[in-house]
């Protein structure tokens, strides 16, 4: 009788390969990218340069105000630094081009692109704005490092950078540049309302960063690196969660790059990767601990978590994009409208460009 056992075994093995790829990540979680000592030292050197340069600028400005009387109208206007954090092409660059049009003196662009991924550099206003970057990975402290790298570069580059907006490659603007700029710079916080400033000079403008303390999975996220590993620097009642995309004022940006104490905890490897999103924990926790009154505790980036999969929010497709969607995404529960929205698939670009002048940039 013909023995077909080898054939059956080979056929079964062949069928098992798809199942292996499907279930292997559950049994063998991917290893996170580790931050090497040379990379850490390189970042520290950048942070020190940016800190010293910023402190020097602040001192000069202080002496200048004491020694001269200058009309505010003659002072250069503050700028917004747009910090793009990406590991793929900036598919919505044409839409951002329209957003930035005719405002070249009021913004700067900085792009941190994962060097391990081949990315086609966009032209126009984005050309020449890629910073020295390092490999990043979702759910690892490398995304914290990338954001800090962007903040330090922007602080060092232009003393007029006053707001720092961290943006995903999947983000789109929901308003015109004028609307956003005027919204950010026409509601200052006076010294009388800010008695507990993080420095001798009060913050003029609050930062916009989501800071939550009642997230259902907070305990699991807190212990993702091991039980009570975050102690004593970060007790559980001080641990916070929020969005990794935010807008910081200059003083908070400086606070972030100067931090060493909390960073030593948040850079630790995760044991439970399904509960560990360092980039969503570090920034809200740091600002909540150091200057709780200096932030709005909400973000200006709209994200739809309905029907999220694998920790990713809902991704809008081209058929969903309409004037009604843009108007709906703008609506918030705060006194500010949402300024950005994510996450959009690349096929939305054509429809968004069609709506740009008639809807998105018509406030």
Structural summary, described in words:
This protein is an alpha/beta fold. It has one domain (37-51, 77-191, 202-360): Spore Coat Polysaccharide Biosynthesis Protein SpsA, Chain A. It contains eleven helices and seven strands. A four-stranded mixed sheet has the order 2-1-3-5. A three-stranded mixed sheet has the order 4-7-6. Helix 2 packs parallel to helix 4 and helix 4 (142-157) crosses helix 7. The radius of gyration is 23 Å and the shape is globular. The chain starts with a helix and ends with a helix. Mean pLDDT is 87; it is low at 17-30, 62-70, 190-195 and 199-203.
Per DSSP, what share of the residues sits in E-state strands of 2 or more residues? 5-15%
Helical residue percent band: 25-40%
Report the CATH topology name: Spore Coat Polysaccharide Biosynthesis Protein SpsA, Chain A
- Could you say how many structural domains there are in total? 1
CATH C-level category: Alpha Beta
Topology:
Elements: H1 5-27, H2 37-67, E1 79-86, H3 93-100, E2 107-113, H4 142-157, E3 161-168, E4 172-173, H5 177-185, H6 218-222, E5 247-249, H7 250-258, H8 263-266, H9 278-290, E6 301-303, H10 323-330, E7 340-342, H11 349-360
Parallel strand pairs: 1-2, 1-3, 6-7
Antiparallel strand pairs: 3-5, 4-7
Helix pairs in contact: 2-4, 4-7
Describe what is shown at a glance.
Helix 4 packs across helix 7.
Task: Please tag this protein with its features.
363 residues, alpha/beta, 4-stranded mixed beta sheet, 3-stranded mixed beta sheet, 38% helix, glycoprotein
């Amino acid at each position: 009788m013909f023995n077909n056992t080898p054939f059956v075994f080979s056929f079964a093995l062949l069928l098992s390969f798809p199942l292996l790829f499907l279930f292997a990540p559950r049994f063998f979680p991917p290893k996170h990218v580790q931050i090497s000592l040379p990379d850490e030292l390189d970042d520290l050197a950048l942070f020190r340069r940016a800190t010293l340069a910023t402190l020097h600028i602040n001192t000069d400005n202080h002496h200048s105000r004491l020694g001269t009387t200058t009309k505010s109208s003659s002072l250069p206007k503050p700028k917004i630094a747009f910090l793009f954090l990406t590991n793929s092409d900036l598919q919505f660059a044409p839409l951002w081009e329209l957003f930035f049009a005719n405002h070249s003196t009021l913004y700067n662009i900085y792009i941190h692109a994962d060097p391990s991924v081949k990315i086609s550099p966009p032209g126009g206003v984005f050309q020449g704005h890629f910073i020295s970057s390092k490999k990043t990975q979702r759910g690892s402290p490398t995304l914290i490092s990338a954001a800090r790298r962007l903040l330090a570069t922007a602080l060092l580059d232009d003393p007029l950078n006053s707001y720092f907006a961290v943006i995903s490659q999947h983000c789109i603007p929901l308003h015109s540049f004028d609307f956003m700029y005027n919204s950010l710079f026409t509601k200052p916080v006076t010294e009388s309302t800010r008695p507990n400033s993080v420095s001798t000079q009060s913050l003029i403008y609050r930062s916009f960063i989501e800071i939550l303390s009642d997230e259902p999975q907070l305990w699991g996220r807190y212990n993702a690196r091991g039980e009570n590993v975050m102690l004593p620097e970060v007790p559980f009642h001080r641990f916070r969660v929020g969005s990794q995309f935010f807008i910081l004022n200059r003083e908070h940006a400086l606070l972030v790059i100067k931090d060493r104490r909390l960073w030593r905890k948040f850079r630790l490897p995760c044991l439970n990767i399904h509960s560990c999103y360092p980039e969503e924990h570090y920034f809200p926790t740091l600002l909540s601990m150091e200057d709780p009154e200096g932030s709005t505790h909400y973000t200006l980036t709209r994200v739809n978590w309905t029907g999220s999969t694998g920790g990713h929010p809902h991704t809008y497709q081209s058929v969903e994009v309409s004037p009604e969607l843009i108007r709906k995404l703008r609506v918030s529960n705060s006194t500010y409208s949402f300024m950005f929205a994510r996450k959009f698939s690349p096929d939305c670009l054509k429809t968004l460009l069609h709506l740009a002048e008639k809807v998105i940039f018509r406030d």
